[in-house]
Amino acid sequence: MPNHDQILRPHAEELYAEELKAIKEVDDRPRPTNWQLSPWAVVTYLLGGKLDNGVELEPKYFGSRRLMEIAVATLATDRALLLIGIPGTAKTWVSEHLAAAISGDSTLMVQGTAGMSEEALRYGWNYARLLAEGPTEAAMVPSPVMNGMKDGKTVRIEELTRIPSDVQDTLITILSEKILPVPELGMEVQAHRGFNVIATANDRDKGINELSSALRRRFNTVVMPLPNTLEEEVNIVKTRVEKIGMSLELPPNSAPIKEIQRLVTIFRELRSGKTEDNRTKLKMPSSTLSTAEAISVVHSGQALAVHFGEGTLKAHDLAAGITGAIVKDPVQDKNIWLEYLETVVKERKDWGDIYRSCKELL
User: Fold this and answer.
1) Domain that includes residue 330, residue range
2) How many domains, the chain?
3) Residue 243 and residue 193 in one domain
4) Is there a single domain that holds both residue 123 and residue 152?
């Protein structure tokens, strides 16, 4: 058995095994066939809370309960689920935890890429056996989708809109007929109860392949929103920074809440095109400035502070990460960032350190 303490990023079902066991013990609601938990228990696992047996569940998703109820209810039907939104809205995070709670296995995953072939969604071949024996079941290499169909499990397809359109449409037969034809063997794989697909899609970045209307109809779409309030987003960043920081061996107190609040404020204002008090309109940079990027900036700053600084995250540790996240276009974004520094950051009380640190890098 692997030592999970040495694994950089354990799977959700491994990291939260105790929570999943605890909620299973008190879960007396109806469960769809081959589900490890009831739909109610899946949502409770995602949103956290205290169970009847006294176990406190850690929230995995900070946001609308109704949104998660819709997502889980979709998966309890024969409709596939599409989580769509800009980068950093926790689509992948939610899909992993949904699969872990429903199937006890989040590893049946296909990562969408621009150069992906149909084999990644259907099946491939062990060419040594294919040459020696011809096309046989033993020579076939099943995809995660095929394995999910056979075992009645949830399959994750990440970045669906990165996949070429003709390859995307491979899913139409799988989702509508619940079969995967294998013409080389004159057979088909039929999906078992419990099989379903969670796909994630980005509707912002370049290089997106639009879904055909035929494929989109096979999904129930849930739009993943950005956090509503500053406090909610700060809480998400703080929680995730602490969780990931443990695996990176970064001290939990090396990221003060004050610096996280300032970073999230900057990202939210530039992302929305206005200051938090709605008094000043701002130009918006080309970068998405998502919650996920804020988490990355904090981790980068933590590493600088711990290994090359005073041990605690300060403005000059954050400055490089903030500038790198905002300035994607060296001309347009740089000017927008500079204008924001001069008109907003410079005028804020007690923000002089972050203003000076960021200006030094421009």
Assistant:
1) 230-359
2) 2
3) no
4) yes
Residue 287 confidence class, pLDDT cut points 50, 70, 90: confident
Residue 250 has pLDDT above 80, yes or no: no
Report the range out of 142-156, 200-214, 304-318 with the highest average pLDDT: 142-156
Using the structure block, give the residue that is written with the tokens 């990176």: 248
Task: Indicate if 219 and 236 belong to the same structural domain.
Answer: no
Amino acid 251: pLDDT:
72
C-alpha radius of gyration, the chain, whole number = 23
Last residue of a domain, one of 186, 202, 223: 223
Same domain, 66 and 199: yes
pLDDT, the chain, mean: 91
Average pLDDT value for residue range 17-32: 95
pLDDT at position 275 is 94
Does residue 71 sit in the same domain as residue 100? yes
Same domain membership, residue 244 and residue 216: no
Q: Which of 148, 172, 142, 178 is nearest to 160 (CA)?
A: 172
| 93 lies in the same domain as 210 | yes
Same domain, 129 and 261: no
